[in-house]
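Hi both,

Apologies for the delay on this - the queue was longer than expected. I finally got the pyridoxal-5'-phosphate-bound model through. Below you'll find the protein sequence and the ligand SMILES exactly as submitted, and right after that the structure tokens for the full complex including the ligand.
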Amino acid sequence: MTDAAIESRGATFTGNRGLELEEPLLFEVGHPDKSGVDLAEPASFQSRLGGMERQSPIGLAGLSEPEAMRHYVRLSQKNYSIDSGLYPLGSCTMKHNPRLNEKMARLPGFADIHPLQPESTVQGALALMDLLSKWLIELTGTAAIALSPKAGAHGELCGMIAIKTAHAAHGRDRSVVLVPESAHGTNPATAALLGYDVRTIPARDDGRVSVSAVRNVLADDVVGLMLTNPNTCGLFEGEIVEIAEAIHEAGAYFYCDGANFNAIVGKARPGDLGIDAMHLNLHKTFSTPHGGGGPGSGPVVFSKALAPYAPLPRIVRDGDTYRLLETAASTGKEGAGEAFGRLTAFHGQMGMFVRAMSYMLSHGSDGLRQASEDAVLNANYVRASLKDLMSQPYGDQICMHEVLFDDQFLNDTGVTTLDFAKALIDEGYHPMTIYFPLVAHGAMLVEPTESESRASLDLFISTMRELCREALDGNQKKFQDAPVYTPRRRLDETQAARNPVLRWRDKTQAQAAE
Ligand SMILES: *Cc1c(COP(=O)(O)O)cnc(C)c1O
């Protein structure tokens, strides 16, 4: 830390700052001889490891119960979360996770069941999965669904395997996936994972993909197109219907990245626009928690053409009974699920299905539509309130649920997009998405979501305007020093990525090795 920074932080004897406590590593707090539990010495026993047993102590940090408790609680308090403040991370849809969802997911009939339980004992869970499937199929205007994918990227893999399977079933040998230059990195990564080559489609001057650009790169080696709609610039792909037609004429399939579905739920059905497969991030659009709050969940919907190539399991209803079709033979239908097989060992993220269903039922169809409208309204409120100070790469046009700025307004200020984001941390905000999408120079992608109040948006906008003014007034140093109010300041991100030190070594060990 520089002297100036220490001064501005106000150094303390403990290193603590007010009620925000410094937290050493577990190994630095604990001691191998210490234990939080009182275990009796084990009786002598005959080893069956044939001399392979560990000779030296395992070296785990021993802690008392209060020490362990404080360690993890302090760490948890260092996390910024949607429960602590506005989280304008574009493309990620960090919306509020309603507590009602949590309550429903903890009902013992959902929380305490096991995937290998007999079907007759989990009829309620299967009914919920069936209802969720119906709602998602209805909202997307599609024909079939796979609930098992565990995240958006996993959903992409699921959809693209279905497409690969369909081509194989038709005896077509193809090798190229079309991906626009604004795509999320997971799109080309998914194509590459399946052994396909990626052909990039350039964006038009207004940030969208044109049907002519797609036609220019279409050939009989094309497997399909992966397109995000609304796209990662926060814009609706106006030529999507013509693009779908062109793709289908070439005997290829249309994979839609549905991560931005939050903008159009109840307004437009991707199936009606001609898509063949699309993942839904339940942890974005349908309010289930992200990351540390819970696992992701990325169900995939399929068009009629692709439905026979969707994975198992499927849920069917026989009168009042629900059944899980888990093997090709059990489907009783020639070809159904046989070609793909299974994607995962079990049936998907049950807890997230309950949360998403709870969200949908509590909103109703009119409420879901209003959530999309409010998300778009909020993003446009931010855009309209900042457009006189911040630059937009494709001119000032109405956006969907997120607004994209670039760094042109910072030209000649010596402040970069990264500096700007770090200054936002000092103001108590998680920064917006930066440097993505790659098509915009120094991109800043802001997604407020529908869960923010007018007052919360106004404070964020005033903060952004103040930072803009300080950058334009030449207060470069403030930005370069930021963040100054965080427990740690700027990390060497390149070093951390290139040379990660993932294993703790105590100082004496480290010295001995040197
Ligand atoms: C979030 C996102 C993904 C990946 O979803 P995960 O659930 O994080 O795997 C893919 N594409 C876009 C546009 C996204 O925003």
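Main takeaway for now: The first helix runs from residue 3 to 9.

I'll put the files on the shared drive as well.

H.
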